[in-house]
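Private note to self, pasted from the team thread so I don't lose it. Backbone tokens:
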């Protein structure tokens, strides 16, 4: 993989500013929330709702939930709202009738929402669809709280380089990366030995491989600790989410795959740890509630009052840790393979996984077939000689589209094959 273009977060030129080198924030901060109707959007707006004198909402976006989006737009008096589906514009206009809230539909409207002049943008559209809107915020030098990990998995080098070029600030909103971000500030790059991201292990942590193979959608959606959107919940059950997060950490902090470890921690209290040269390990802890990392990003460089439960370790009693099982959870192994392969392989990993998860939700493949489809697509991609550096968002999107096609082509044989 190419990390040369990506500056380590400790570098003064990096897009991920490690130390609080900014003046404390006062006055009203204008914010936009991309993916406002989702789980991260909801947590973000919950924090904003609690401090109405501190924030003004510029733009909100959604995908299909027009009524929900219009309700939020009115509640927060947003200046602009965008919906992804161009066919829903009339419906959105009708829902906003009698207000002076501007609106648009389709990809260009999502990009317009991101490009509008908010100081702070939450990038929380799910999937590769979030890439172009997040780039629109990056390109105007905004402070971008990045929840959408697919931006980095699909186009990491490119995304981070664009952020540096535009003088944008990327604040990691994913809980593990936010934890690393907080812990990394304890030392310098040359003192770092490794980072460790924790994983709950998901609902199948203790299951035998044969049972994981046959797991149902309802079982996959029962996350033990976190309440999240459907796609990421299924990715947590397959540990593909942790795979995506290993890749995300690599691009965000300019780390090699060997510097990133995964540790299974079923209680989800310790979110990330950093080990330094003196063997000090610095960790961030908190309740498993996304409002904690989001509050860190929303207040940055200050700390704002939290909305999640405070941590009561005495009542939790025990924190336990296990090594990850790369055999029962092959999705995690494949993420390291993709990262080492580089040249678009992580884009293929993500695209094939999105196709596989959609097929699993639709009842077309078994749970165990998700990782098989990802592996076969990655192998097919390499065999076809398709690996090449990604120089632009369009390159990344082209790879994403072709990899989806390849995955869709391989789907029937994967569906037909028993494990
Ligand atoms: P979600 O499914 O609850 O919400 C996704 C949001 O994106 C919704 O507003 C939806 O309307 C919008 N959206 C979906 N498809 C779209 C499309 N094609 N075009 C435009 N908008 C679209 O998902 P979530 O759990 O809130 O996750 C959002 C992102 O944050 C994902 O990338 C996820 O990996 C990441 N993330 C989520 C969590 C979590 O706890 N939920 C934690 C860390 C990272
Ligand atoms: Mg996470």
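Design output:
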């Amino acid at each position: 993989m190419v990390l040369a273009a990506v500056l380590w977060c400790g570098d003064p030129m990096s897009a991920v500013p490690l130390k609080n080198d900014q003046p404390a924030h006062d006055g009203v901060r204008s914010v936009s929330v991309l993916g406002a109707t989702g789980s991260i959007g909801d947590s973000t707006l919950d924090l904003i709702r609690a401090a109405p004198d501190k924030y003004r909402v510029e733009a909100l976006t959604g995908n299909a939930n027009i009524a929900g989006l219009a309700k939020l737009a009115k509640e927060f008096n947003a200046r602009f709202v965008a919906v992804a589906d161009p066919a829903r514009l009339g419906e959105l206009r009708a829902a906003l009738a009698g207000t002076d809230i501007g609106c648009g539909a389709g990809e260009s409207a999502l990009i317009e929402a991101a490009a509008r002049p908010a100081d702070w943008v939450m990038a929380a559209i799910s999937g590769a669809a979030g890439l172009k809107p997040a780039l629109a915020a990056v390109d105007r030098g905004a402070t971008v709280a990045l929840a959408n990990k697919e931006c980095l998995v699909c186009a990491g080098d490119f995304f981070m380089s664009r952020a540096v070029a535009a003088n944008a600030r990327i604040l990691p909103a994913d809980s593990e990366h936010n934890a690393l971000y907080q812990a990394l500030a304890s030392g310098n790059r040359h003192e770092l030995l490794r980072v460790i991201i924790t994983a709950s292990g998901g609902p199948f942590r203790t299951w035998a491989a044969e049972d994981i193979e046959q797991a149902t959608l309802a079982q996959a959606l029962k996350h033990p600790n976190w309440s999240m959107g459907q796609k990421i919940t299924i990715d947590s059950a397959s540990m593909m989410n942790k795979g995506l997060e290993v890749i995300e950490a690599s691009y965000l902090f300019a780390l090699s795959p060997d510097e990133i470890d995964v540790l299974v921690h079923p209680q989800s209290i310790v979110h990330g740890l950093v080990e330094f040269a003196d063997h000090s390990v610095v960790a961030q802890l908190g309740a498993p509630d996304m409002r904690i990392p989001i509050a860190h990003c929303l207040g940055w460089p200050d700390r704002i009052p939290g909305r999640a439960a405070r941590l009561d370790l005495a009542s939790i009693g025990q924190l336990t840790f296990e090594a990850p099982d790369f055999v029962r959870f092959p999705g995690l192994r494949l993420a390291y393979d993709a990262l080492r392969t580089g040249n678009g392989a992580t884009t293929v990993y993500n695209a094939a996984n999105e196709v596989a998860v959609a097929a699993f939700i639709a009842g077309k493949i078994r749970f165990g077939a998700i990782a098989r489809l990802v592996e076969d697509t990655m192998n097919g991609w390499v065999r076809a000689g398709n690996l090449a550096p990604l120089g632009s968002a369009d390159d990344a999107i082209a790879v994403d589209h072709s990899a989806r096609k390849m995955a869709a082509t391989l789907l029937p044989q994967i569906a037909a094959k028993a494990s």
